[in-house]
Amino acid sequence: MSYPLIRPRRMRRDEFSRRLMRENVLTTNDLIYPVFVHEEKGRAPVPSMPGVERLSIDELLRVAEQALELGVPVLDLFGVPDPAAKTADGRIAWDPDGIVPRAIRALKSRFPELGVMSDQALDPYTTHGQDGLIDESGYILNDETIEALVRQSLVHAEAGVDILSPSDMMDGRIGAIREALENAGFINTRIMSYAAKYASAFYGPFRSAVGSAGNLGKGNKFTYQMDPANSDEALREVELDIAEGADMVMVKPGLPYLDVIRRVKDAFGVPTFAYQVSGEYAMLKAAAANGWLDEKACAMEAMLAFKRAGADGVLTYYALDVARWLRED
Ligand code: PBG
Questions:
Q1: Whole domain around residue 248: which residue ranges?
Q2: Active-site positions, per UniProt (predicted)?
Q3: Separation of 238 CA from ligand 1 center, angstroms?
């Protein structure tokens, strides 16, 4: 009896050798925590995202303190405006006294060492729930939208944001924003582009959280976000954003698109991030609430899967939980 001579199980037999051959590790340095900031007082739960709440600026400061204490390096801000203030052109998106610029100023003055990131797109601010400006037929106008995104970006940069993250998928917006930043002297404002962002059904709970779901109605984003069938196209999008001046790129959603993360990382070797989106979070929460999955084990496995696929970091609604779980172990 000569087989098996090679026994991969040998290395898995004990904890010490499992540890020795472990290829990827997750630390709190890998986490970005997305948060929703609203105009109301206090906190309001997001029903389809248990554990996620819309926060007033006062409450946001409490959460920021926790994030810092847990070692989470960056908070990513999404604005939830007063519904009555929405317009077809979404102009409150570039109001210097809008919810996001106020939140940026509050965070940076209280916690200068905390990384602050913000989202650029018009969907929370428009009456139609699209990320850009539309023509009479409802088509999203590219170049006109870029002008609006540049305004929104400059307002966030002036408020002191560290990282801009345009999530709209207009062509050429990274170049236009980068040029405007340079011209205005914001040479150190980083850009993480939503470079490969798919037209995904997994964004549903997020649209409820920012209050754009009702505005968008039966509308979709197929004319600007990418077709889930494609991955060569993702490389083209990433290539353009890097050439236009992105410092970091993102693939979104996360777990269903690990192949895209791997291709992007292998092709470009730039800082690459995965966004574990609202629907991915909601699935885990729902299964855990039913006792069907072990929440911590599954969430941590998903984080490691992002690292294994080549992601340098993950945007996740689990960020504070993950930081706590890492501390426990
Ligand atoms: C808006 C935006 C979306 C997300 C981030 N920025 C939704 C969308 O494109 O419709 C999704 C985040 C999530 O689902 O967690 N431009």
A1: 25-328
A2: 197 (schiff-base intermediate with substrate), 252 (schiff-base intermediate with substrate)
A3: 18
